[in-house]
């Protein structure tokens, strides 16, 4: 399905980073090692690389990754791109200072808890998980994301899922989004920034 969606001309979600990422520049520290989860066509990983981060990105669609490589080349950005299924990614490789997951709500409830645990495991002590997505109200709006309320996030859900982390930000809100054809219009959004308990510090400490 994703190869088919990404095979159309242009960039489905545009080439500019998610507004969420731009608004959280404080966490994008030069030299930090970051993982972009299900990165699609590269708009977010390329942005982070441009900020001086050491970025690894993965996505299951080889067409999306080809476009991401082209975008990185155009921006003279260095990103370690990988074609990989989110369920088969090696989360136990070298840990990251920052794990960023933006609009990954193709992941349904049967897989979501495990992916959240995987993401948390991939972060160094003192490192940060940044998650941006939709609340269930998004289904009625129909301006992006799957038409399945069960795939969306609530504040209570994320509070419970990241209860073992220090939650630095958790908020749901409405905003007009203009991020390519795939995300366009009034949207019901939710943001999470959570830090893994530190016992040795990390590059992303505020």
TrEMBL record:
GO terms for biological process: methylation. Signal peptide: none annotated. The keyword Glycosyltransferase does not apply. Residues 35-127 form the Methyltransferase domain. Transmembrane segments: none annotated. InterPro entries: Methyltransf_25, SAM-dependent_MTases_sf. Keywords: Methyltransferase, Transferase. One of its GO terms (molecular function) is methyltransferase activity. This is Class I SAM-dependent methyltransferase.
């Amino acid at each position: 399905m994703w190869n088919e969606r990404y095979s159309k001309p242009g960039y489905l979600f545009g080439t500019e980073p998610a507004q969420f990422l731009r608004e959280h520049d404080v966490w994008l520290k030069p030299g930090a090692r970051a993982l972009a989860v299900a990165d699609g066509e590269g708009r977010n990983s390329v942005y982070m690389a441009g900020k001086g981060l050491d970025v690894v990105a993965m996505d299951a669609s080889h067409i999306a990754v080809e476009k991401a490589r082209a975008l990185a080349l155009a921006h003279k950005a260095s990103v370690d791109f990988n074609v990989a299924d989110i369920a088969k990614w090696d989360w136990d490789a070298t840990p990251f200072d920052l794990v960023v997951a933006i609009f990954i709500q193709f992941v349904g409830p049967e897989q979501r808890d495990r992916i959240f645990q995987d993401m948390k495991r991939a972060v160094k002590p003192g490192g940060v998980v940044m998650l941006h997505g939709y609340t269930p109200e998004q289904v009625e709006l129909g301006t992006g994301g799957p038409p399945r309320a069960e795939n969306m996030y609530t504040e209570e859900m994320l509070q419970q899922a990241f209860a073992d982390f220090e939650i630095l930000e958790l908020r749901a809100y409405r905003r007009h989004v203009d991020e390519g054809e795939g995300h366009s219009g009034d949207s019901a959004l939710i943001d999470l920034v959570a830090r893994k308990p530190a016992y040795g510090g990390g590059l992303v400490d505020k």
